[in-house]
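In this supplementary section we document a worked example of the pipeline. Step one takes a protein sequence of length 293 as its only input; no multiple sequence alignment statistics are reported here. Step two produces a three-dimensional model, which step three serialises into structure tokens for compact storage. The input and output of this example are shown verbatim.
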Amino acid sequence: MVDRYGGDVLGGDWKRPPKGRSVELAAEPGTVVEDVETGWVGAVVRVEKAGGVHVVHLEDRRGRTKGFRLGPGFLVDGSPVTLTKPMAREAARLAEARAAGARTASGSRSVAGTRARVASGSRIFVEGKHDAELVEKVWGDDLRVEGVVVEMLDGVDDLAGAIRDFAPSPERRMGVLVDHLVPGTKEMRVVEEARRLRPWAPHVLVVGHPYVDVWQSVKPERLGMQAWPVIPRGTSWKHGICAHLGWPHATQADVAMAWRRILGSVGSWTDLEPELLGRVEELIDFVTAPGSA
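The serialised model returned by step three reads:
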């Protein structure tokens, strides 16, 4: 019998999009995809976690790299795909995590069963809370084993006064980490004066990194950026960074939350710039040298 009315018009996958339904695809390095929203076409370079989300970095044919949130919204040969974490990388990361169990976040070999030492007389001083939290996250295990305490200065405007108050000696050394220590800055003038203080100078080591703020010592790729932006003079640097990243920055609580997101992107020393790594290691060596405890 001939069906006068045809088949059921609602039968089958009638909601199927014109280009087909999205399928999952592991974002393995070298996979070429197109971002639907921007039209950016590139090969997967890497996938990393930044600010609590996974970011896939795509390199176009001109060698430019751009980060996108991992997930739906991509095309492969015109068909929609949902990018997922690469399986090969996950397996390697698991093996790396197992190996990392024998090392601290700073890359030092972890000593099982070792208790923290009683604090020594020597100290490392940093400018503020964010500096202290970053040092603790990466070098905390090492410092506890050595018995070294990190203290905050709340700025270095009166560094000379802080040195006099601490009264360093051969058994009580003082290491200081300074932000934005570059020629011609106020910080450099303050440090040069402090380095000449007698009789304490031989027992004080003041070093610094070139970054405006310790935020900048975190590799920008960890936050989905190619580089930290240049903030115009007259604009609060931290507020400018938050605005660039599209994060709230109207209140101090907003800025504090931004720092938590940045700090959360740091898992070990590999997430920090060498200009900071070298200086902190130098300070630890100085305050833990034989005869300084």
